[in-house]
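Dig into what follows:
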Amino acid sequence: MPLFIPSLKACLRLAALAVAGVVCACSPQWHVMDASPAAKSAQTQLQYDWAYELQAGPLKYFGAMPLELGQVAVHPAGFVVAGSSHGLVVAIKAESSEIYWKREFTSSITAGPIIVDNVVYIGEGSNKVIALNAFSGKTLWEYDTDAPVEHGLSIAHGYVAAVNANNRIFLLNANDGSLKWRRERPRSSGFAIYGQASPYIDGEFVYVGFSDGYLSAFAVQDGSAQWMRELDPNLRFNDISGQIARSADVLYVATASGGITALNVSDGQSLWKREIADISGVQVFQDSLFISSNDGFYRLRASDGHVFWHNKVQDRPALSSFSLGKNYIYTSAPALGLIVIERKTGQTRYVLNAGTSFNAVPKLDKGALYLLSNKSVVYRLLVDDEPLI
């Protein structure tokens, strides 16, 4: 059976939802491209279910250029939460696409939503980290960091770590938003890639990268630095703006133009390095390191950086970060749309284009995939797959 069934089924479903008053009049025209060779899988089928257009209005961040910096988060109770550059956070019932609740803010959502323990956490272009009740959208607390929080938001072990555009990290108590400590690095004196890397919080330390190219390990309890090191001092773009991943006693850190470096978690010393252009996403699973980048998608051996496979997708695709499924990897690119890659072999199975660009990370849940387009439309696709991690 084909992986994707667009057109008639999608149009009928969309028409039914529009009559119910829960979907916009937009009609996504999905096109399948690059199915070469189009080896179909009976294990994984993908079908268009619904689309919901977030409230129209002027973007509050990048002017008239459509660009969504937020993402979609899934709550196990059966609803999804999307953050938009229109300053909206919307909770949508997964099965019916009906609105559960909606909040409007004064500026663009630039980080999150992230859902942890029935709380929705977001970063706002007006400098704030905000916690919302996941079931009502009511504000629980907010903290002003004095500069935008652009991507750099993490929640784990009862703490919220946020890095703002002024090269400062704030560790907040997740239950009330109170400040535990803050630290900072000098701002980069040269050009820097947009956004900050999300910190990595373990039970004892917070690992964070800064725009001046330094990676630091701060103690959770008092913010003292265990170690600090500059990864790539000679690069034109040396800021650490990619994700940080960890496996056992190894950290994997991406710089803007220097590739991926594996570090000893105890002292920050380099174990190996591989040059990969403009990394956007890093995840580690068992013996493999999965990487999305402007040079396509990579699967490396985590122990030494050996390339298991490399899928160029096409030249300079500017891939987003990704969701890792048991069968497939789901990423997106502005000029292409949704890209589905076989996890084990690295082959592109399908590129699905809806006539709009995508920058947000596709969010895989058990049996469903959620996409947020740069036209502020949330799509739900049904897929016979589930997250690997």
Q: What stands out?
A: The helical segments are 7-19. Confidence is low (pLDDT under 50) at residues 1-27, 33-44. The radius of gyration is 20 Å.
